[in-house]
Recover the amino acids of this structure.
């Protein structure tokens, strides 16, 4: 196979398997090419990704070595996208009762989900994440998008028992805006002990739901490796949680005046982009 | 930019935008290359994808023309994956009460979701789909995976009212195993009139839930463009729905004897793979 064909196939193959370590002999065999040619191909791939600030190709030396594609977005891409997203969120048509914001179009748009997923996966690209966790329903697409780029499984806490999942562990938590105590649960078989869990959710008011998820993770003797939300309500004074990151901060929601103010959140300032 | 670099970037760019028509002048400008060079690049990309039976590159001639990447999987890949999936589903540990089958690991695994999404998107690659629809909770990851490869939005019917979605339309339906009447609803703003909707779900017993979704789509004066489920219970005699496709058929679930039998479903026989 020619270099040009190898590069097309290699790019596709690696992009479909983020974070997987692929041994060089695998490519050498797949293309019937010398290892030195494969190394040259990978060098082209690496610098093309780096030039676009859109992905890192890591080469691991030695007998157990190989090559790994790490989805990683440059700071300028991140800033540009979050600024655009915040502006789109400022549409007053999004205002719903109770200070909530309509986000289902964004959370159901593959192009947004890819960018959001890539961005959160960039932040945690070099963290040790075994699994992404969220709670039904609207966090699910976010969890899936992040899990895809980290190439780890994702799991979903449920708000009520379902017969189709077997035994569960449950915790109580204070749900949205501190007004009531609810219950969330996770099937016992979905999470192993000592897992490193990245929590994600679509919208955070005071953080009660995330606190519930943290508690649930602890019940499984596992660790919180990070907490990241798409939007956080910055106007909510009483926060039940610390150390979380957000893609967008909602500064104000005024249903009467039809005003919603949003800006990029804390994620970018807490991401080390110097990896290219 | 050299051909080798262009090919890496072009492959990545097109893969990130399935079904989008990209005008050739866009690439010519992006790479500072002649249109004839871009055409040669695209020819390499096209035959490399075709050789692997993993994707179609369509060129559209004329002033409004360009190039489009269509995720499309060859029949052999499809057969191989579905046979493997059916075998994995035959694990007796998956048997749950009521003839249900534990599938959350598959529905939360990015590698499975990519293959499942690509397979369903192959079947509907040349159908006119505006939106993918499912019902919470477990169908969501499936809908997202399919929507990603068709590059259309996906929407989620809910089982109960949520304050965060505004006005809704609701219908009643006969839920799992015909034992009770439930309600499902969809926010009015998520679906436009005259949309072509592809329905997907994780597990079908008699099909009551899918019937409810069909009814809901009709309430929005929209059309059902297809119905596809991950697993259908072949042992369930009374079917409320016709013309649906399945990736896997569950032939038997016996909790006492710890036996579960599965085989590839009807999707492959109803897919035209002669497109490469």
């Amino acid at each position: 196979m020619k270099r040009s064909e190898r590069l097309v196939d290699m790019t596709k193959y690696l992009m479909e398997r983020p974070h997987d370590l692929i041994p060089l002999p695998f490519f050498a065999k797949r293309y019937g090419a010398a290892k030195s040619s494969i190394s040259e191909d990978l060098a082209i791939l690496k610098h093309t990704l780096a030039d676009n600030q859109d992905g890192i190709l890591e080469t691991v030396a030695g007998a157990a070595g190989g090559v790994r594609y790490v989805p990683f977005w440059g700071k300028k891409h991140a800033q540009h996208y979050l600024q655009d997203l915040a502006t789109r969120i400022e549409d007053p048509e999004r205002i719903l009762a109770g200070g909530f914001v309509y986000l289902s179009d964004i959370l159901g748009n593959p192009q947004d989900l890819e960018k959001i997923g890539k961005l959160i996966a960039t932040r945690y690209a070099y963290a040790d994440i075994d699994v992404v966790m969220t709670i039904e329903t609207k966090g699910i697409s976010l969890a899936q998008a992040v899990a895809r780029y980290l190439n780890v499984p994702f799991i979903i806490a449920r708000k009520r028992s379902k017969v189709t999942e077997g035994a569960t562990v449950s915790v109580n938590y204070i749900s949205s805006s501190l007004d009531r105590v609810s219950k969330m649960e996770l099937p016992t078989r979905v999470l192993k002990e000592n897992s490193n869990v990245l929590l994600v959710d679509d919208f955070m008011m005071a953080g009660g739901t995330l606190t519930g998820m943290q508690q649930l993770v602890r019940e499984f003797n596992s660790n919180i490796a990070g907490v990241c939300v798409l939007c956080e309500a910055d106007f909510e004074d009483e926060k039940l949680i610390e150390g979380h990151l957000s893609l967008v901060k909602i500064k104000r929601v005024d249903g009467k005046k039809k005003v919603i103010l949003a800006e990029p959140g804390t994620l970018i300032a807490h991401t080390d982009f110097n990896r290219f």
